[in-house]
Amino acid sequence: MSFLYLGALLLSLGGLAVLDRRFRLAFWSAPRRAALTVGIGVVAFLLWDGLGLVLGIFARGDSPHMTGLLLAPELPVEEAFFLALLCYTALLSWRALDRWRGEPA
Q1: Which residues contact 83 (CB under 8 A, 6 or more apart)?
Q2: Which segments cross the bilayer (predicted)?
Q3: Given this model, what pLDDT does residue 104 score?
Q4: If residue 75 lies in a helix (H) or strand (E), which one and from where to where?
């Protein structure tokens, strides 16, 4: 069991949180809205992954860098953190673009 990939995901999420705090883009400007946005995105992508797994489109690959812990059959715990990273990155990018264009929060 290795926590290397999960650790990298958590470190990356922490880096995004630092950027978010510094520029007050999402959680530090509208925490409830940001949590809903990221949460809805993660749930939607987990449902998408679940459907892909049930249909046999997706499969869990073996990696020595993963914990081996599963949220569901063939769905590693790291996937939820990866999806959170994906959604948080998209949200911060969108908010930064809004700010750059001068649009209100």
Answers
A1: 41, 42, 45, 46, 49
A2: 35-59
A3: 66
A4: strand 75-76
pTM beyond cutoff 0.85? yes
Question: How do the domains of the chain map onto residue ranges?
Answer: 4-14+37-100
pLDDT of residue 96: 95
Whole-angstrom CA distances from 81 to 12, 76, 93 are 10, 10, 18
Which stretches within the chain are classed as H helix?
A: 4-23, 31-54, 77-101
Dihedral in degrees, nearest 10, Cα atoms 39, 6, 76, 46:
20
Structure tokens at 18: 């630092």
Indicate if the alpha-carbon torsion angle 42, 46, 48, 52 is positive or negative: positive
Q: Do 37 and 87 contact (CB within 8 A), yes or no? A: yes
